[in-house]
Amino acid sequence: MTNRYDTGMKTRREVLGDAHVDRAEANKSTFDVPFQSMITEGAWGTLWSDDTISRRERSMLTLALLAATGNFEEIPMHIRASRNTGASPEDILQAFMHVAVYAGVPKANHAIKLAKQTFAELGVEV
Asked: What is the predicted pLDDT for the residue at 1?
C-alpha cells in the first residue's frame, strides 16, 4: 500500500469511525478493490487529509454537495461522521439551507428529513 493509502485509511477511520470502516473493508471483493483503493487514496488520503480547511467545513461542504446533486444515500453516513468532525446540527442545517437557495428546496427538504432521521437514531435532539 502507498503512504497516501495509509494516510487515507487513518483519516477515514477518524472521520467515519472504526466500525463503519471495518464493515466496508469486510464487504470488499476482488471486483471493487481498485475502487476502494482509489477512494481511500483520493478522497481520504488527499482531500480529507488536507488541512487547508477544517474537517467541520469539509463535512458541511460534503453534505451540501450530496444534497445538491441528489446523492441522498450517503447523507446519513456523513451525518453520523459529523460527530467526529465537529459539524453541529446547526452547521448542517445551514449547509442544507444553502442547498435550498442554490440547488432547490425539494433537495434540501429531503436532506433535512434524512438528517432528522439520522440524528434521532443517534439520540441527538434537533
From this structure: 62
Torsion angles phi and psi, residue 55, rounded to 5: -65, -30
Give the relative orientation of helices 75-85 and 55-68 as an angle to the nearest 10 degrees: 170
C-alpha cell at 105: 428546496
Q: Please answer whether residues 91 and 56 qualify as being in contact, where contact means their C-beta atoms are separated by less than 8 angstroms.
A: yes
Let me know whether 58 and 118 are in one domain. yes
Residue 88, SS3? Answer: coil
Do 71 and 39 share a structural domain? no
Q: What is the pLDDT of residues 67-121, one digit of tens each?
A: 999 999 999 999 999 999 999 999 999 999 999 999 999 999 999 999 999 999 9
In this prediction the pTM is 0.93
Cα 40 to chain centroid, rounded: 13
